[in-house]
Amino acid sequence: MSARWGVTKAPPRASGGIVLTTARISSRHFSRFISGGTESRAYDGEEGILINNGSGNMDINEIARMAGVSRATVSRFLNNGYVSQEKRKLISKVIKETGYVPSQSAQQLRTGKTNLVGIIIPKINSQSVARMVAGITERLSGTSYHTLLSDTHNDPDEEIRCLRVMADRPRVDGVIFIATVVTGEHIAALKALNTPVVILGQHVKGFSCVYHDDYRATFDVAKIALRTARHPGYIGVRDDDVAAGAMRHRGFIDACHAAGIEPAPEAQATGDFSVESGYLCCEQIMDAVPETDAIVCATDDMAYGAITCLREYGHTVPDDVQVTGIGDSELSRILMPSVTSAHLFYKTSGREAAKMLLEAMDDGDEVPRQLKIGYEIYGRNSTR
Questions:
Q1: Range of the domain at 320
Q2: The pLDDT value given to residue 109
């Protein structure tokens, strides 16, 4: 029987329980023997495992023959092109029965696509980042895309290096960058990418972004403590992280002004997102301004540290000092006292970022889009 690619197959013979199929390959093919069978790959980039070694491996031509459709129809199916529902069912049935897996390298050569999405994260041990990544992978599940995760350990230079590596050659079809600090070097590296990119967690002009309403969330959660507090303090993070730093700090300051309060500079400290920094910053504030009666924290983790510090120094939460956080992590609901916090829908933002990236990758939509995600406030036992 003569195959399309000039391959003439001889009758199979048995060897040690494995069915071997020999083949005479034209000059368009390269062949070698592996695991008792012959593997052949086409130079023009088409899929090409031509041997059935007993495990169900076969080529695109055989899939087409078994499904009763053309080779071109199978190729469109494998590359997410249009195929009628009836033929799609036939091809799916054959692929499921045979266990056929198309050659990824051949598909990449032909289409220029890797079917990989790069996700650059600031740190892997962050609950907010974990929820974002969960949303991303949930949305990508069921598509042809897989994820490549890069943990930069909160190092801006490493973030830039990762962006440059992904721009160097088509390693990925798209990038989701969970951003903290965004510098001019970041912008240059983002512009150099040859693939679609979505920035998650920061609002950066000129790029597709999914971000949170950090200012309003902090303003509203601070208002709860300011109903009874007159000497508020604040534990934040560095202001060059615009979302978690500058926007949340501004939300606190404006909430104080709306309540007719001018917060003392000595009652405001900068941490690094961690529980330990929340403890140390709280200690610093209480030493400098002992009459502090509320501490608004830019993250839940720093709020946990502040509560621990207050307890150890003999203060009762919330009777002596109220504490609020941002993020609404699971611990905020079960700690004693439970923590008043703003829920920022991190998982939803991850899903929306992945959706935005899929539209850019699959539909060629290059128009930058910005999506601001809302929030909910949960008043709990750490405030009065």
A1: 214-344
A2: 52
